[in-house]
């Protein structure tokens, strides 16, 4: 990936992180935008999000974000001067959840040093 595409992805991630926090859809829970992958022609962007909560809450949040994609795309178009505004597709990113699970497993296996 070129340096330019890395900067574009990071800029879109920052704009979306701010924009998601201002959405008023009750389906959208506590969301963190963890990454963005934009196609080289800037027509499509995969937005990876981490959602705090159970499976049902994750599904509702993704649905709420998909419903609000036009608002978020408008925000990207207004704040970033890109040749094209990418079509957004939201996907759940399980890496944060995996990291928490791994930390718990390590804590369970580690000997207790409090003696």
Could you outline the blueprint of secondary structure elements for this entry?
Elements: H1 3-21, E1 31-38, E2 44-51, H2 55-67, H3 69-79, E3 87-92, H4 95-109
Parallel strand pairs: 2-3
Antiparallel strand pairs: 1-2
Features:
115 residues, alpha+beta, GMP Synthetase, Chain A, domain 3, three-stranded mixed beta sheet, 50% helix
What is the mean predicted local confidence, pLDDT? 88
Total strands: the figure is 3
The shape, in one word, is: globular
What is the CATH architecture term?
A: 2-Layer Sandwich
Structure description:
By secondary structure, this protein is an alpha+beta fold. The chain has four helices and three strands; from the N terminus they run H-E-E-H-H-E-H. The protein has one domain (3-109): GMP Synthetase, Chain A, domain 3. It has helices spanning 3-21, 55-67, 69-79, 95-109; strands spanning 31-38, 44-51, 87-92. A three-stranded mixed beta sheet has the order 1-2-3, sandwiched between helices. A hairpin with a 5-residue loop joins strand 1 and strand 2. The radius of gyration is 17 Å and the shape is globular. The chain starts with a helix and ends in a 6-residue tail after the last helix.
Short description:
The chain is an alpha+beta fold. The chain is built from 4 helices and 3 strands; from the N terminus they run αββααβα.
